[in-house]
Structures are given as C-alpha cells and as structure tokens.
C-alpha cells in the first residue's frame, strides 16, 4: 500500500525515528536500514522491508521501482513524505534518501547450522558498531557462516552497524549469547575454537585450522579474558612489528579469517 | 608554564575548540589529540604536546604527572580549566579527559626514506577518518614505514583519525600527494607498486612481493581508478566468497599488508 505523510507529528514518522534507539528497536523487534544500495542488497538476499520510506517528488530510479514493487507484492507499506520529514528519519539532508524497516532476525544459537560453513566469526564484548558491521562484511567476504556476538556487544541492528555491514547483515547469520551459553553449545558438536590472543606465542600463520573453525576476537581495549582463552582449542597471535600492542578488532578478525580460509582451502 | 582558565570565552579555549575543524588546523598548523593513553603514546614516541589541557581538580595520575613534567621541560603550556570548559574542547563529559595540541608534521614525499622499511601503505581518496586512522595503526603493526595519502583523502590530523590511529599518527611517517606527484617520486627510486584490485584475477597469496613494497588501496566506494591500476607493477585480488564485491578499505589494506609482510620475511 502506498500512502503519503505530510506532518512531522505523524505516528509513523515517530515510529521510524524511534528505531534509531536500541530500546525502541528491542521493543518493536524492528530495525532501520538506509540507502538504496543497502535495500537493494537486502532484496537480492531475499529480504524485503516491511515499510519503505522515501521522499515525495524523488526522481525515478529503476532499482527503487523494483524495490517498491517488491514491497507492495509482500503487502508492505510504501510511504512518501516531504524531504524535510524524511531527513528527520534518516538524519540526512538528502532527497535521494530511502529507508526501510525490517523485522529483526532470530539471534538464538540454536538456529545456527555449524556445518553450513568452514568458518565462523565470534566477537566478545565488541563495543563499536562500525567494527561490528565491518566484521559482518568480512564474514561475507570469507564465506563465513555468520557472526556470533558474545557478552555485551554493540547492537548489530543499529543504523551504524547495518551501514558498515554493507548488506552483510542480510547474508550472514547472527547469534547473540553469553559465554556461559556459547561454550556448551560449541562443545555439543564439531568445532575448533581459536582465540586471537595477545599473549600466546603461536604465530597465526603456523597454526593448524580445522573446519568448522570458530575465530574468536576480543574487546577493543581489553582483548579476550584469560579464562576464555584458556577454554579455546588454539590460541594464535598476529605479529606486531611496531609500538602498538594490538590491531583494530575488525582488522584482526579479517587477517585471521583470511589466513584460516587459505589454510582450510589448501 | 602552568595556568588556569576560568571562562568559556577565553581565547585559548576558542583556539583549542577551533582545532576540531580542518580549516583552522590548516591555518594554525596544529592538531588535537585526546586522552591520556594517546598522549602517553606520543611521549613514548618522543613527541610532546605544545599545550596540555586538563580539568582542574582532576585526580592525580602518575602518567599525567610525567606528561606534565615533559610538557613543562619542553617549555610547553599546561592549562587547567573547569570540567565543563574542558568538555567544550573535547566534546566529552569526562573529568578524566586531557587534550594536547601538537604541531602538524611535514607531509611532503621528499621527507620519506623509502629504504627505511620493506612495506609502505598508500591510500587513494580514502574518505573515512576512522579507516585512515586504522590504516596508520595497521602500518605500525606490520612495521610499515608510513602511510602515503593520494588525492583527496580524509584529514589525517582530524580528531577521529588521530583517535583511530591509537598513537600510530606519532610513529608512522605520513605523506600527502596528488597521484601526478606520487608516481614520478616512486619511479625515481626502488619500489614495487602493488594495487589492491577488484578487477585482476591474481590471488594476493600467489603474488611475488618485493621490498620496498608500496601497497595501494583505493576509495571506499569506487576502488582504484583503472588508469592508476595500469601504472602498478602488480595487481592482486583478495578473494570474495560471498555476495559483497569488496572489503572495507582498511581491512583490505591490512589483509594485503600481512600477506606481503610474511612473504617478504620468508
């Protein structure tokens, strides 16, 4: 259904804006993705927004037409509004802007099929939504099954994480769990748990990786808790040749994932 | 010299705040770095701020005492101000906050000694200051000589880039140049120019790297211009196993740099 909204105080506008905050996303079970490219990526992955918001009087675009048709075919809402109202939703002064509302995915561990991929990324207490989105994007690139978020991580459904994922939020499986849930789940099946460690001397290039390989990266400032590393099957270190003692968490995950990918495919 | 500032309208406060904007940084030739850790990293690299700003009544900290002594010994200014004034400078409500003003470095190509390191990172039209800072951090980690910024990149002296560099802004050499200046400079000495390409089929792990190796990564959305790639000695591709066609630029740089590092050291 296509309709037009003319006022800032319209409840749908308020609803869309509210999804920029985590508590509202959680309550509604919905999240916001912005930009024609991201929404087109979602559609290519078979995910269509429940609500599509765009500026009235927007220039026609074939990808937008296809998107609108897909939303309508799925009985979703297509909502037009003035540019300045849409800017309140997207936070951007861009008449080309479009935004979509999606239902959040089930993030339970039980849904993951570990045999679906040789590599899985696992992040513990990852606080930066940009890093989180980048890890999803890297996961897609290495053909990972998905990203498992341990303990208190940034919200993967935040606008920033969704944007940094460059569409991988729609292709990678996502699970959220406490360490106390994750470890028994992992040990209940096949799986090598590999820690990106700042302590251990084993070079990441000399290590032996086994599928399904779960690559665990720790918090941006603290790294992994020692007790977590102790539970891992393998602890590997990426060499540091300079003054700094660590890499950006998303970078460390990617360097490790590409090494494991190459070894597993060799 | 230690002094106390009590008003928001104090010229030094205005000066500090102004350094959040590029045009003022360029005019003054100064930049701002925030946080005790970053300032301590700078000092460990032999770089001491010209001005150190901190909250009056701040709890004592041995690292801060050492920093203050180093600034005073170098005839720098130590300035105390109320928490709420400092918050205007740092943009953060944090009484632990400290900020330092540094002179911008000379970023001419002529200053680089290419024989100083086997690896150099080169970024073209890199727009995100977080990516830029992350590349500096990665450069430090792989023992790169520095980062060369080609064409219109984000400002490496922005607060965001400095923060993301995690201190590497003080350890990595930095040069800024147009492509038309860079290429003749590069060809005027030893150096293998390697493009991170989205087009070429040569796997980055099968390639032969030679020191000094200049690893060139392109813009976040466009990648490298075809004409630039054509000028490179080698074009390599990082495999993409998923739906996405590219990695985050800083991630691509890191994956490539670690592979080149391993091959060059083998």
Automatic annotation (TrEMBL), chains A, B:
Gene Ontology CC annotations of this record: cytoplasm
Residue ranges annotated for the RNA 2-O ribose methyltransferase substrate binding domain, each copy included: 32-108
Keyword Transferase: yes
Pfam family, one: SpoU_methylase
Superkingdom of this protein's organism: Bacteria
GO molecular function: RNA binding; RNA methyltransferase activity
GO biological process, one term: methylation
Protein keywords: Methyltransferase, Transferase
Gene3D superfamilies: 3.30.1330.30, 3.40.1280.10
InterPro entries: Alpha/beta_knot_MTases, MRM3-like_sub_bind, Ribosomal_eL30-like_sf, rRNA_Methyltransferase, SpoU_MeTrfase, SpoU_subst-bd, tRNA_m1G_MTases_N
Family: Belongs to the class IV-like SAM-binding methyltransferase superfamily. RNA methyltransferase TrmH family.
Name under which the protein is recorded: TrmH family RNA methyltransferase
